[in-house]
Amino acid sequence: MLLRPLFLLLATSLAAFAVDPIPTFHGSIERLDPTLDALIAPDAKIEVLASGFDWSEGPVWRDGGLVFSDVPENTVFGWNEGDTAAKVVLKPSGSLSGEGQGSNGLQVDAQGNLILCQHGERRIARLEKDGTFTSLADKYEGKRFNSPNDLVIAKSGTIFFTDPPYGLKKGEAPEFPQHGVYSVTPAGKVSLVISDIRFPNGIALSPDQKTLYIAVSDPKNTRVMAYDLQDDGTAKNGRVFFDAQPLKSAERKGGCDGMKVDTHGNIWTTGPGGVLIISKDGKHLGSILTGQATANCAFGGADHSTLYITADMFLLRVKTLSKGE
Q: Is residue 106 part of a domain?
């Protein structure tokens, strides 16, 4: 089904999102293992690119710039090198009536199309060049999803996505007992991949596409799970890859949320305090401490060696020596 957003603003006439003055930001890079120096240079700094957002989320690099969601504001913003402000790219982004929450996780498919987790519409959708949305998945076995949250696109074109209840409207009841992890193939076949996780959130694939990672934002048991991904798209051998619950404290806000994987298989996941860098063997190498509840991150830049971070009201970046997958 095709639906047209109320406002689709072209890059030549984008409205700037006010960021002046930038609130005081205090962040640091915590180094727990010397191997982190090969991923983030010892003199690397956290840069504030923009601020003032309600809840920034779902960053992805597209067409030479970054786009990201502000979920409560039902808006996708854009930022390009040299900009002093983020700009509205798409509004509404996830609730076409304006009564629900906007988009959350974003990705770009092999054709360059923006793929959105639309909270308000409770679906995965593709933004078409004419500004309309095409629904890629909105139901499983006749029931509506809770509120698709984050997604990853496999090399095959299959989309894997998480479906916690965070984006449900007030008074809107879930139609599933589970907070599922689902897949949708290019042909439109929707499958339930994982059904036994409460609050699945971020999602990523290993470079060889054989391991599926799920960030779990359960406030009582925040962690990263790993699953062996089979050729038929099913997931087996679920195990705790990294337990982040012991890191939580009054000073280190947030839980495991969005994540990305670099070309060497290291996992960059948001977690208590900011972004945790974890080796492919599950060793915590260090953290980018933002001082904020941190939602998501994405590699970008000309060679994908810059990590962009959405941390509550801030858009941040850190230059890295590692490159995004």
A: yes
